[in-house]
Design a protein that fits this description.
CATH topology: Glutaredoxin
CATH superfamily: Glutaredoxin
Strand content: 15-25%
Mean pLDDT: 84
Oligomer: single chain
Number of strands: 7
Length: about 170
């Protein structure tokens, strides 16, 4: 019995350490873009071939999300963003992978019935214009590309908040 408890404690400690090193969660002091800031200059090619940049988002409400499909919080949040995408065609959705290539994204999108456009980035160059840690990272922006709401890894527990905040932002513009 004592041997099994010792093994359980060691296994728990190892799992905790692995989680700490592999987690999506990290120090929030490395956030460069927050509420009230304009989107930094960036340009990505979406999976449908469309090029999206901070300049091309001017004049539209937009949602910019950074994700990786191995991140549990991202996997929980992506269906919520899909719901927003399905119900708000007036919003530009820009989903950008954080160091995840297209060959792993496309099958994930298909398996999970996701139809939102995405940009597969094999490195972190675009992401690092926004932050250096923490995903998912989501920005709701107004037509002047000013970030009106920003969310990080904690949003998966409050997924409805994104939908409500998006609706409120759109209502303010009417």
């Amino acid at each position: 019995m004592k041997n099994n408890i010792g093994k359980l404690i060691r296994a728990t400690a190892v799992c905790t350490l692995l989680w700490a090193f592999c987690s999506c969660i990290s120090d929030k002091t490395s956030v460069f873009v927050d509420v009230g800031d304009k989107l930094p200059a960036f340009s990505v090619t979406m999976n449908d071939g469309q090029v999206v940049s901070n300049d091309s988002l001017k004049g539209s409400y937009s949602l910019v999300m950074f994700f990786h499909t191995s991140c549990g919080d991202c996997r929980q949040t992506l269906p919520v963003i899909q719901q927003a995408y399905d119900t708000h065609p007036e919003v530009r959705f820009v989903l950008i992978s954080r160091a995840q290539a297209a060959d792993s994204l496309q099958p994930y999108w298909e398996r999970n019935g996701l139809t939102m456009p995405y940009s597969a980035q094999s490195d972190r160059k675009v992401y690092e214009k926004f932050a250096t840690s923490v995903i998912p990272r989501i920005y709701l922006c107004d037509p002047k590309t000013v970030v009106r709401k920003a969310y990080d890894d904690q949003v998966s527990a409050q997924a409805q908040t994104i939908l409500d905040d998006l609706q409120q932002l759109l209502s303010e513009g009417k």
